[in-house]
């Protein structure tokens, strides 16, 4: 796998990189917040952590919308020459995009169905559905499943990026970090 000629001249725009790394940061912190928060008994300690989880999750939804609009204006030119590997990478990205949209929406649905307020950094948002405890339990299960599926996918994705960097020694990760392969 080599990076040459035309492809080597395919830089990554700073906005593409900013959206990517802000999303990564948000996902890492929102997982920590919910994992720490879930074990706490005291609501005074638990509530702010869950609020951070929600706000970061909703920020991921906004970032993902921005990413898709941006991708439409500025397509990502792959550095991967092998068509099969490129297709696998694209399929993984597509699944990740879908989960990055579905997961916050499921969280929002869950909190609405519990009859609790959803807020984005203190700004109250409308409920998506009316209170329904039974549905809330189901949606919670989907939200949990989606969360762990997303984690598995991005784990594979990060492992692939590290493989490109340390084993194939191409510019795929360097380009996402610095803009140039
Ligand atoms: C990318 C976005 C998100 C991811 C990856 C994510 C992931 C998760 C995960 C893994 C859990 C733990 C599930 C379990 O095993 O019990 C969870 C719980 C939860 N999430 Fe999210 N979430 C996201 C966005 C949201 C949003 C936007 C909201 C609300 C607006 C939300 C509300 C909640 C709530 C209330 C819980 C349950 C916490 C508890 O057990 O008390 N999530 N989320
Ligand atoms: C929560 C974690 C992550 C998510 C949600 C995520 C998501 C994505 C998405 C959607 C893309 C497609 C490009 C775009 O639309 O911006 C992408 C590309 C990329 N990601 Fe991640 N990523 C995550 C973590 C990581 C990590 C930890 C690394 C490095 C170890 C990494 C390295 C890369 C690289 C190198 C590309 C460019 C691939 C190419 O040029 O085809 N990502 N990522």
What does the model show?
The chain is mainly alpha-helical and 181 residues long. 74% of the residues lie in helices and 3% in strands. It has one domain: Transmembrane di-heme cytochromes, Chain C (Fumarate Reductase Cytochrome B subunit). It has 6 helices and 2 strands; from the N terminus they run ααααββαα. Strands 1-2 form a two-stranded antiparallel ribbon. β1 (118-120) and β2 (123-125) form a beta hairpin. It is elongated, with a radius of gyration of 19 Å. The protein binds protoporphyrin IX containing FE (HEM) (2 copies). One protoporphyrin IX containing FE is lined by residues 30, 34, 38, 50, 53-54, 57-58, 60, 100, 103-104, 107-108, 110-111, 118, 143-144, 147-148, 150. One protoporphyrin IX containing FE (HEM) is lined by residues 30, 34, 38, 50, 53-54, 57-58, 60, 100, 103-104, 107-108, 110-111, 118, 143-144, 147-148, 150.
Mean pLDDT: 92
What is the radius of gyration? 19 Å
Question: Judging by the overall fold, what is the CATH architecture?
Answer: Up-down Bundle
Major β-sheet profile: 2 strands, antiparallel
Portion in strands: under 5%
CATH topology: Fumarate Reductase Cytochrome B subunit
CATH class: Mainly Alpha
Beginning-to-end CA distance, first to last residue = 13 Å
How much helix is in the residues? Answer: over 70%
Tell me the overall shape. elongated
How many beta-strand segments?
Answer: 2
The class by helix and strand makeup works out as mainly alpha
Give the ligands present.
protoporphyrin IX containing FE
Q: Please identify the oligomeric state.
A: single chain
| Continuous helix count | 6
- The strands making up the biggest β-sheet line up spatially as 1-2
The CATH homologous superfamily corresponds to Transmembrane di-heme cytochromes, Chain C
Helix-strand topology string? HHHHEEHH
Q: How many domain units?
A: 1
Ranges where pLDDT stays below 50 over 5 or more residues in a row are: 1-8
